[in-house]
Each structure stands twice: as C-alpha cells, then as structure tokens.
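[job 0417] fold request received: DUF2508 domain-containing protein
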Amino acid sequence: MDKLRKGRWLKMRIKKRTLWMAVNSVYGERLLQIAQEHSRLSCDLEVNKYLSDQDKMIYTFHMKELRKEREMIIKQFDSEKEHSVLG
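[job 0417] inference complete; emitting structure tokens
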C-alpha cells in the first residue's frame, strides 16, 4: 500500500459504535453500495492497465466523491453519539 493511500485510510478513524450505528440505520444500504462501487473502481484502476489518463482521473474523482459521501453519512452518527452523551 503506497503512502498516499495509507494516509487517506488513516485520515478517517471511526469508532466501532459509530460505524455500527451508521450501517444499521436507513443509510446502511447506501453505505454498502458505496463500498461496492469504490471497491469495483479501485480494482479496475489497478487491474486495467489500458485505461486512458482521462479515465483514470474520472475513476479517481468518483472514488473521492464516494469517500466524501461515506464520511458525511458516518459523521452524522458520530455527532449524534456526542449529543446523546451531553444531553
């Protein structure tokens, strides 16, 4: 795993409870779809050596958008946990 990918992975540290709450919510199916699509794009990017530079950029952009959406969904549950403890 190269440093860039490793750095991206380490950027988002998620508590197990937060992830559990997100996956078991109405967003669970969407989180699964995001994971599947991201995995498909990532594998295709690694395996398909014949992609043009433009296609690679499109794949990378789409993967970034999927990560943003995933993080946005999960953050909703992280803040809910904090609020429930305080109030």
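[job 0417] notes: The first helix runs from residue 3 to 11. The chain has four helices and no strands.
[job 0417] exit 0
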